[in-house]
Amino acid sequence: VLDGAMLVDAKVAFDQHTNQPIINFTLNSQGAQIFGDFTGKNVGKRLAIVLDGKVYSAPRINERIGGGSGQISGGFSVEEAHDVAIALRSGALLAPVKVSETRSIGPSLGQDSIDKSMAALSLAAVAILIFMILYYGVAGLFADIALVVNILFLIACMALFGATLTLPGMAGIVLTIGMAVDANVIINERVREVLRTGVSIRQSINKGYENAMSAIVDSNITTLITSAALYAYGTGPVKGFAVTMSIGIVASMITAILGTHGMFELVMDKMEKSKNTALWLGYKVRGGANASVR
Questions:
Q1: Kind of pairing, strands 21-27 and 69-72?
Q2: What is the pLDDT of residue 102?
Q3: Which domains does the chain have, with CATH numbers?
Q4: Whole-model pTM above 0.70?
């Protein structure tokens, strides 16, 4: 009956009585005459709005529409009303819309970033595991075991909550690895400090854990506070980083403090019997475990 060239404008408005979205449209003089004659002869029938072969709406003609303006109603949502208005305005373009080419872009860029992140995570973990053993001996091995348990615990918690491992999440895991080992570094250094005073290996380990506890707890609590702020005020990726960090911190406090201390207790008798502090703690005490260093 009409084509888009006869349409002047189409806008979304709201009915004064029902407050429902409607579409107000305006036709030019030629379209107004054609539309008035057609609607007068077809009251009660439907009139379809078609764009590129797709029917966007088919409202019923309630009365003769003269004067070149009218409205389309029918319980539209705001989004549906906007779609119909856009279809009407788009029909004013004489050139039809045709799909000339379609391209599908695969997630190669995202996969490349994930692969690089996994490589960084693996490289960081392996480097830390080797360094801890070389520098702290068996104590470093205990720290490595605690680190592996920490990572497994972190992944298990994320799987339990149905969380998705995103790039920020991987960054959180890498940072968690460093922070988890940092706790054991503090403990081992405190043990060495006490060992230099000439006390036994058992006393050095117990005193080292006691001295390191306050520093570890304070640093982890401040990081947890930061993670909570990131989760509260951050966006999606930042929230993922905050969640990963929080779980990793809690896990590291359990594995680094309780886990490694329990491992030391299991082999304490062997450590005291051998008195080989270089093997067990990566630090050689001159004159035996009970000698002091000056």
A1: antiparallel
A2: 67
A3: 4-90 (3.30.1360.200), 108-281 (1.20.1640.10)
A4: no
